[in-house]
From TrEMBL:
Protein name: RagB/SusD family nutrient uptake outer membrane protein
Predominant cellular place of this UniProt entry's protein: membrane
Compartments where located: Cell outer membrane
Keyword flag Membrane: yes
Length: 540
């Protein structure tokens, strides 16, 4: 049975709810804080708080072309205004403040605690500081870089934002320290499963560096090659460590209870919920509350990205036949499609044990996501299925993409090491340079396709479109759904159809993306009012 990290809050951490202008102000008035920081237990309890900031299951994919909810949202329809406050800003600075506090105060335990142990929990704190800053710069670009706790008079509270290059440099320094000082996945073992390992730090560095490497390349700024090399090197270090591998069970089970725990070497970072309703940290109702109720439905665009088993897209493969019934959509396809999408015959819920077809009153696209679908969880509305936040599969596609973007090519050997391992899992023919040339395929596009289908429903697509600078092309397109199988969908709900009988969920006129401003999010207005040295992002 896996170990659950206990999220213990102590006195000095209870300031997490302070407004953003207060997140770095830690008055030294608490007796408990003065007498704390004496032992390994103190350091571990303090570090446990940082894990509460790991992201839960979400519906972020509705911002992209992979999914849509019951209604439009102000990101995909372009109606956003600069907010007064933004939890994405405040929460990440709360995390950074807590991490800075540990980095500063952990050395107090030196009288009774080995330096290696102090370094370990300092490394966890520096990992989470890097996590917070990546979340900030990914959204907002330049932000204040604060590396210590501040008092009320600290000049940093009124300083301008730091350039993103400086922030990424600090992120790399923090992650390199974490990679050097944290235990391996094997050393953590079952007892400490769920804590950040050295390979987690490396894998996250690969994610961060790929984002900035490709973003700077396609947005034409900075040093793309530097970041892309960092991404490739970090990903290769994870691969060479032999600490991780792909899950040996079914792809679908990755997102069920069988995919949890130390025995699943594919999980690099997870948000733990628990092992049962009686042994849990917290629960979620992601399946019933988000998927079954239509708050996130897959699109035709995502469905069409799944290859036929011969390795060709549906527009090129002789295996593809126009569907007559709904199950035809899955015939001779990458099996990860039927693991990610509900199809007729799949277990669904107690009141409807077997899935028939997505009810259009909720699932507007006529599709429904299947990842995390679990009948028992539908009954309890209190799932303990963990969220895999960073998987070894992501490391593999990151390595492939970083190599290709850095060199303009990738060898067949490296394709076998990365992309083809994932295609094999989906029952899809191998990708080689010769195969791509013979069939008029672009290797870069095929690597991006592999990333899209492997990581579908996991919150990556919107950010990928931003870094590739393709959001301005892809996001304003109409949202289409499944082929309208009249005999199966019935006529209870009226729907708009295209001329070729696909469900038209949202017309292009309702989809907006302004390339002059939407590649960065607006800074919260209140933060600019508190610190006039902060400048609003262009166009906001």
């Amino acid at each position: 049975m896996k170990t659950i990290i206990k999220y213990i809050g102590i006195t000095f951490t209870m300031l997490a709810g302070l407004p953003a202008c207060e997140v770095e102000r830690l008055p030294e008035t608490s007796i408990s804080d003065q007498t704390y920081w004496r032992s390994e237990g103190d350091l571990k309890s303090a570090a446990n708080y940082l894990y509460t900031f790991l992201p839960a299951w979400s519906t972020e994919d509705v911002w992209s072309d992979d999914a849509i909810g019951l209604a439009s949202n102000n990101i995909s329809d372009g109606s956003r205004l600069a907010p007064a406050t933004d939890g994405n800003y405040n929460t990440n600075y709360n995390l950074i403040r807590a991490a800075n506090n540990i980095v500063e105060k952990a050395p107090r335990a030196s009288a009774s605690t080995d330096k290696a142990i102090i370094d370990r929990y300092t490394a966890e704190a520096r990992f989470f500081r890097a996590w917070g800053y990546y979340n900030l710069v990914q959204r907002f670009g330049d932000v204040p870089l604060i590396l210590k706790t501040l008092d009320e008079a600290a000049p940093e509270l009124s300083a301008p934002a730091s350039p993103r290059a400086a922030i990424f440099e600090q992120i790399y320094q923090d992650l390199d320290f974490a990679a050097q000082k944290l235990p391996t996945h094997t050393v953590l073992g079952t007892a400490d499963f769920g804590r950040i390992s050295n390979t987690a730090a490396l894998a996250f560095k690969a994610r961060v560096a790929l984002f900035e490497g490709t973003r700077s390349k396609y947005h034409n700024y900075g040093e793309p090659a530097k970041h892309l090399k960092a991404a490739a090197d970090a990903a290769k270090a994870v691969i060479d460590s032999k600490q991780h591998d792909l899950f040996t069970g079914a792809y679908f089970d990755l997102f069920q209870m069988p995919g949890e725990g130390r025995q699943n070497r594919e999980n690099v970072i997870v948000k733990q919920y628990g092992v049962s309703l009686t042994e849990r940290v917290v629960t979620h109702s992601y399946y019933r509350g988000s998927l079954e109720n239509g708050n996130m439905n897959p699109t035709k665009s995502l469905a069409d990205s799944y290859l036929m088993k011969d390795g060709l897209p549906i527009a090129k493969s002789p295996l593809y036949k126009a569907p007559v019934v709904s199950t035809d959509v899955f015939v001779d396809r990458d099996t990860r499609m039927s693991d990610t999408f509900m199809k007729k015959g799949d277990p669904m819920m107690t009141t409807k044990p077997i899935f028939d077809i997505a009810p259009l009153v909720f699932n507007k696209t006529g599709f429904m996501f299947r990842k995390t679908a679990n009948v028992d969880d539908w009954n309890t509305q209190a799932s303990t299925i963990d969220r895999p936040i960073l998987r070894y599969a992501e490391v593999l596609v990151t390595y492939a993409e970083a190599l290709y973007e850095l060199n303009g090519s990738i060898s067949d050997a490296d394709l076998d090491l990365t992309v083809n391992r994932l295609r094999q899992r989906g029952g899809v023919a191998k990708l080689t340079n010769t195969f791509a040339t013979a069939n008029g395929l672009n290797i870069r596009d095929e690597i991006r396709r592999e990333r899209r289908v492997e990581l579908a429903q996991e919150g990556f697509r919107y950010w990928d479109l931003l870094r590739w600078k393709t959001a301005e092309t892809e996001l304003p397109k109409p949202v289409l759904g499944n082929y309208f199988f009249k005999a199966e969908f019935g006529t209870v709900t009226s729907v708009k159809l295209t001329s070729d009988n696909y469900i038209l969920v949202q017309e292009a006129s309702f989809r907006k993306f302004d390339p002059n401003k939407d590649y960065l999010w607006p800074l919260p207005i209140n933060e600019i009012a508190l610190n006039p040295a902060l400048k609003q992002n262009k166009g906001w």
